[in-house]
Amino acid sequence: MPTTTDERGRPNYFPRLAAERLDIALCRASALVARAADANAGAQGLGVGQHLVLKMLAAVGPCSQQALSEELRIDRSVMVGVCDDLERRGLVRRERNPRDRRSYAVTITDAGRGRLADAERTVPDLLDGAFGALSRSERDLLGALLGKLLDIDDPRAD
Description:
- The chain has 8 helices and 5 strands; from the N terminus they run E-E-H-H-H-E-H-H-E-E-H-H-H.
- By secondary structure, the protein is of the alpha+beta class.
- The protein has a domain of about 110 residues: Winged helix-like DNA-binding domain superfamily/Winged helix DNA-binding domain (Arc Repressor Mutant, subunit A, Orthogonal Bundle), CATH 1.10.10.
- The radius of gyration is 19 Å and the shape is elongated.
- The relative contact order is 0.10.
- InterPro entries: HTH_MarR-typ, MarR/SlyA-like, WH-like_DNA-bd_sf, WH_DNA-bd_sf.
- One of its GO terms (molecular function) is DNA-binding transcription factor activity.
């Protein structure tokens, strides 16, 4: 595939690179979506990780920081800071884990549920902005392909 030039005569190499290197294309697309998610979360007063922690706690109930870290794929050292900040803001609380007294269970508070509800209302606009170039069926296909790549089953299929 020949390299084209932009309006200033500079090489327009990235389209060729992205076509040849799916890994590069996926990394760049991921970075674009991550920036959009960070901007959206920041506008809501939550980091992306904080939003995800609140969402998981609301869905599955109290969890250890380790379980949150593993399930959300957030580094354990980062998870400590995420939970510390959420706790300072009164959005979660840590309590002794009744199943393992050596650990703490993180629990979402009523304030955390309210904050999560506010943040969740903005997600459709975020997704429309980040994936606006894709049709609904293309978005569904992308979700299925990414699930396959990540070796996860689509919970919507149940």
